[in-house]
Amino acid sequence: MSPVSNIKTLKIDGKDFSARQDETILDVARQNKIFIPTLCDLRGLSTVGACRLCLVEIKGTNKLLPACVTRVEEAMEVTTTSERLDRYRKSILELLFTERNHICSVCVSNGHCELQSLAQRLQITHVHFPYRYPKAQVDGSHPRFVIDQNRCILCTRCVRVCEEIEGAHTWDVMGRGIDANVITDLNQPWGSSETCTGCGKCVHVCPTGALFEKGRSVAEMLKRRGFLPYLTLMREERD
Amino acid sequence: MSFLDMDDALITLAERVDLVYSPLVDAKTFPQDVDIALVEGAVSSEEDLRKIRVVREHSKLLVSLGDCAVTANVPSMRNPFGVSAVCDRAYRENVNLDPGIPDQVVPKLLDRVRPIHEVVPVDVFVPGCPPSASVIHYVLTELIEGRRPELSTRTRFGA
Question: Which end of chain B has less Cβ packing within 10 Å, N or C?
Answer without folding.
Answer: N
